[in-house]
Amino acid sequence: MHVVIIYIFEIDNIVNINILKKMVKYIEDHPHEICLLISLVFVFIEMNKNHNNFISVYLLSFISGVCFNKICKFNIKDIKCVDLFLNKILAYTLCISLMITFSFLKKKKKKEKEKKNIASWLIDTKNKIIYSEKKKSVINKLLIQSRFLYVGIAFIFGMVGTIVGGIISYYIIKIIFNINNTKNKDTYLKRSACCFISTYIGGHINLIEIAELLKLNNLEKNSIFILDDFFTNLFLMMLPLFKKYSNLLSFPNDKNLQKSLASQIKQNKKNNDILNYQSHNDETRRLILYEPKEITYGSFIYNNENNNFEKNLIKNINSEHNFVYKMFGKIIYDSLSIMFIIILTEQILTHYELLHKIINLYIINVVKIKAFLLFSITFIYLFFIDYIIQTISGIANCDCKNSKLIIYTQKIIEMIRYIYFRSIEYYSTVLNFLFIYYLFFLGILININSLFAISKSLAVLVISMLIIHLFCVFFLSYIYNNLCSKNENTAIHIDEILLAINANIGGPTTATIMSELFKRHDLTFVSTLWGIIGYFIATDISMIIYQRL
Asked: Where are its TM segments located (predicted)?
């Protein structure tokens, strides 16, 4: 009897081992499908989790990919697979991040008439005074209210930290590992340091560009890519912890700012009447984030009438008694919205590649206009789509109900408008999915054994640069807040510091994703813009440093 039981257990073990082998074989043969499935699971977790958790979904997806690599033993044979995902997936994420940026641009509201009445006493004054007031208002909105200036200061601090960290780390590693005597190792270390300096000023895309300019071979590229992917993504995914413990770092947090603003408003209401409060409360003392959350998309001006179409459409769907019909209708609208995002992104990238090829025939070096070209095409597409939606919305708001054709046309237009605005809500979801997919697949490509097989000097170089970069940003921001800022509105806040670090280390894409994670949509455009600026200047700075080292 015991022999039979042992035999049965052995058969079960053999069957389980065979099943595991088949699963591993399937994962090895179909890595894209596995990444897709697991990324969908992680996106669902991200949508339904508390953001105060210690480990973010992004970090978890990256670690899961590394574990899958350890189980299935993937190997990178050449650079083509990495180039594919750095170009294609990052192009998708950058394009959608630009869509989010344009979508969350704050538009003018119908409060301008009130402002004109309040400032009516300026009409009798000289034109110079009016012109100077308008000029101050424009500068105030551009630099102060949008937080462009303060994110830029933190970004410059990070750029200084990257340059100083790269130079100091280069000389420290030369001394520690005694690389002075060997010329080949010294040249490779110098090239690697410049590659990481370029990457940590403008993001991942600069790594490909600087590697081509320095003429690195495939083995050197692979080692730098692996180290950058592992340590950079690990570093960026740990950054939200600094927001959680920002009180320990003595940096102004959003909660403190909200309390101070609330106390100021209460005090002003007690001392002044409403008109005096409106006239003396200058916009330079207020952040965009704490104004009424009346954010509009595209060129639509916010009012209740223009947004009633969505509520009416939802009421029409909910008025049906069939639960299956309501669920089916919602699934159709959501699916069409996601399809619209995918089709629009593919069209933008197709025209971008076409224009890039045409320009490449007449201009020798078109590397630096890639981001600007994508930026322009995305803006043109969204502007014209938004203009078309706004134009046809006049037909939907028409009260003419004599003809059935007009009624059906209005319903179709309402459906199109609903799908368009619904797709805007799905921008961040699709972006999160792409970024999780990107991190998980990068984790699969990274082999831990090959990571430790790479020279220790490069690993120490990356870690040292990231630590010095982080120290410089926080230290210089702390000095600025204590010496230069007069109040909390003119100080650099923890969100702005972290987004500037993301714009430096990861580029515009990760800065956009981090602004989504922090729920700081008012900083999306600013952080993305500084990331693009870093992309333009990073390669030139690193090449100058390479010549000086």
From this structure: 54-72, 84-105, 148-173, 331-349, 361-384, 424-446, 458-480, 523-546
- Residue 439's nearest CA partner among 143, 13, 62, 118 is 62
In this structure, the number of other CB atoms found within 10 A of the CB of residue 20 comes to 11
Between CA 362 and CA 369 the distance in angstroms is 13
As a whole number of angstroms, the distance between CA 178 and CA 176 comes to 6
Phi, psi of 77 (to 5 degrees): -85, -30
* 481 phi-psi bin (left φ>0, alpha ψ -120 to 50, beta other): alpha
Q: Closest Cα to residue 522, out of 254, 301, 337? A: 254
pLDDT tens per residue across span 430-488:
877 877 787 777 777 776 666 666 667 888 888 899 999 999 998 898 888 888 777 77
Report d(CA 18, CA 10) in Å as an integer. Answer: 12
Angstrom distance (rounded) from CA 414 to CA 280: 42
At 194, list the tokens. 């410049």
Query: Is the pTM of the predicted complex or chain greater than 0.85?
Result: no
Closest CA to 352 of 373, 381, 379, 383: 373
Tell which residue, 393, 454, 461, has the closest CA to residue 172: 461
Report how far residue 260's alpha carbon sits from residue 489's, in angstroms, rounded to the nearest whole number.
10
HSE-up of 33 (CA within 13 Å, CB side)? Answer: 6
Dihedral sign of CA atoms 261, 262, 263, 268 in order: positive
Buried b or exposed e, range 50-78, using 16+ CB within 10 angstroms: eeeeeebbbbbbbbbbbebbeebebebee
User: For residues 75 and 473, is the Cβ–Cβ distance under 8 A?
Assistant: no
Q: What angle do CA 57, 59, 61 make, to 5 degrees?
A: 65
pLDDT tens readout for residues 227-255: 887 788 788 777 777 776 666 555 665 55
Q: Measured between alpha carbons, how far is 159 from 387 in angstroms, rounded to an integer?
A: 39
List the one residue out of 516, 538, 534 whose CA is nearest residue 56.
Answer: 516
Where the chain has pLDDT below 70, the residues are 1-32, 47-56, 71-87, 90, 94, 97, 100-146, 180-184, 244-326, 363-371, 393-403, 447-455, 516
Please provide residue 326's backbone torsions phi and psi, each rounded to the nearest 5 degrees. -65, -45
